[in-house]
C-alpha cells in the first residue's frame, strides 16, 4: 500500500515538516521501521505557503522591509531559480501578528509588500505568487503601490502612502513611474476571498473590525478605498467598478484590488496554487492511503483549506483519507461528507489545550500509531 503524508502545520507549534515527521514516527511503531511513506507538506495559499514551498525544494531568501507600523522587519520568501519563480506571503511584511495588541487600522501599511516584490524582481523572477491573508492593513494596496513607484497626488506623502488614513486628500493617481520591470512579471494571487473592495461586503466592512477598526473608521476606510480605486481605474482607463467590484478585490484589506488592477494579477484558489508549488499533485499519483491535517478542524477547514483539498483529491483517485489535528469541532457526518474516512484529534485523547500547544509531538505520535493500527493492520 502506498501511503502519502500531506499535512499543513499546527500553527504556532509544529511546521508541516515537523508534523509529517511526528506522524511517520508514530506510524512506524505500528508498522515497523521499514515503513517509508511519501511526505509532501501542503498549504492553502495563506500563512505557511512559503514554508511548504521551501519544503518542496525552493530556496529561502531573506531581506528587510518596512513592517506594518513602519518598523524594519526581516522577511522570508521562497525562490526557485530554475523556474524563475518567487513565492511571497503578505503576512511576512504586513501581518497582523507583527503588531500584537497595537493595532492601527488607519496607519498600518503595505509598503513592505512592494519592497518584497522589488527584491524578488531584482533576482530576475518571471513569476511571483502572492499569498494573501493575515494582513493588518486596509489600504487598497496603496502602500505597496507607493513602493513600486505609484504616486498618490495631494496625499500627505504622495510618494509614500502609509495606511488607509494616508489616502486622505488624494485627488488623483499617477501610474507613470511604476517600475517598468513589473510588466515582465506574471503575478498569481493565491486567495479564496471573494469579497469586493468596498460596500457592505467589502474589505473595510467585513475585515476591518478584526483589525481594530471602529464603526466610524470602517465608514471612513470604505470611502477612502473607494476614492483611491476610482482614481486608479480612471488612470487605467477602464470602466469604474471594473476592478473594485471584482471577486477578491477585498482580499488582504484591498491588496487584492491593487494586484488585480495595477499588477494585472491572475487570481487562483489558494489550495490549487499551493498544491502545484509543493508537488502534491505529483505525489498523489498512486497513493492508496493519505494522512492530512492541521491544527484546528472546524467549518473553515471545509471552506477551501488544505486538508479539505487533500480529501477531495484523494477521493478522485480512490484513496482513503484520514486527518490528524490538534482539535476538532466538526461532527462526524460533516467530515465524512467532506471526504474524510477518519479524524484523530490530540484534544480527543484527553490532553489539555495548554499541553497540546506546548508539546504536541508525543501526542501526535501516539494518535498516528493508533491510526495506523486502525486502518493499515
Automatic annotation (TrEMBL):
GO terms for molecular function: glycerate kinase activity. One of its GO terms (biological process) is organic acid phosphorylation. It comes from the Bacteria. InterPro entries: Glyc_kinase_flavodox-like_fold, Glycerate_kinase, Glycerate_kinase_RE-like, Glycerate_kinase_sf. Keywords: Kinase, Transferase. It holds the Pfam family Gly_kinase. Belongs to the glycerate kinase type-1 family. This is Glycerate kinase.
Amino acid at each position: 500500500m502506498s501511503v502519502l503524508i500531506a499535512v499543513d502545520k499546527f500553527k504556532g507549534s509544529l511546521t508541516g515538516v515537523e508534523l509529517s515527521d511526528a506522524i511517520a514516527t508514530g506510524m512506524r511503531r505500528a508498522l515497523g521501521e521499514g515503513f517509508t511513506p511519501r511526505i509532501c507538506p501542503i498549504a492553502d495559499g495563506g500563512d505557511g505557503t512559503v514554508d511548504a514551498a521551501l519544503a518542496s525544494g525552493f530556496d529561502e531568501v531573506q531581506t528587510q522591509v518596512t513592517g506594518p507600523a513602519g518598523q524594519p522587519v526581516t522577511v522570508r520568501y521562497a525562490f526557485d531559480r530554475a523556474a524563475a519563480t518567487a513565492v511571497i506571503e503578505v503576512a511576512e511584511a504586513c501581518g497582523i501578528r507583527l503588531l500584537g495588541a497595537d493595532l492601527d487600522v488607519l496607519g498600518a501599511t503595505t509598503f513592505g509588500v512592494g519592497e518584497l516584490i522589488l527584491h524578488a524582481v531584482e533576482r530576475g523572477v518571471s513569476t511571483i505568487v502572492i499569498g494573501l491573508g493575515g494582513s493588518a492593513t486596509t489600504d487598497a494596496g496603496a502602500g505597496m503601490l507607493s513602493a513600486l513607484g505609484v504616486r498618490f497626488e495631494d496625499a500627505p506623502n504622495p510618494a509614500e502612502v502609509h495606511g488607509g488614513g494616508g489616502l486622505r486628500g488624494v485627488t488623483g493617481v499617477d501610474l507613470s513611474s511604476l517600475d517598468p520591470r513589473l510588466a515582465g512579471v506574471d503575478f498569481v494571487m493565491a486567495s479564496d476571498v471573494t469579497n469586493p473592495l468596498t460596500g457592505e461586503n467589502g474589505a473595510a466592512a467585513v475585515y476591518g473590525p478584526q483589525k481594530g477598526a471602529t464603526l466610524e473608521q470602517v465608514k471612513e476606510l470604505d470611502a477612502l478605498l473607494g476614492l483611491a480605486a476610482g482614481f486608479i481605474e480612471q488612470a487605467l482607463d477602464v470602466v469604474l467598478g471594473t476592478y473594485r467590484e471584482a471577486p477578491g478585490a477585498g482580499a488582504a484589506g484591498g491588496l487584492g484590488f491593487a494586484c488585480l488592477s495595477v499588477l494585472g494579477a491572475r487570481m487562483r484558489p489558494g489550495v490549487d496554487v499551493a498544491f502545484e508549488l509543493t508537488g502534491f499533485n505529483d505525489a498523489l499519483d498512486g497513493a492508496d492511503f493519505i494522512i492530512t491535517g492541521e491544527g484546528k478542524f472546524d467549518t473553515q477547514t471545509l471552506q477551501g483549506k488544505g486538508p479539505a483539498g487533500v480529501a477531495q483529491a484523494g477521493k478522485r483517485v480512490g484513496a482513503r483519507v484520514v486527518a490528524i489535528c490538534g482539535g476538532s469541532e466538526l461532527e462526524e457526518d460533516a467530515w465524512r461528507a467532506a471526504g474524510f474516512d477518519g479524524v484523530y484529534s490530540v484534544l480527543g485523547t484527553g490532553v489539555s489545550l495548554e499541553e497540546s500547544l506546548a508539546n504536541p509531538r508525543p501526542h501526535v505520535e501516539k494518535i498516528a500509531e493508533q491510526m495506523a493500527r486502525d486502518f493499515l493492520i
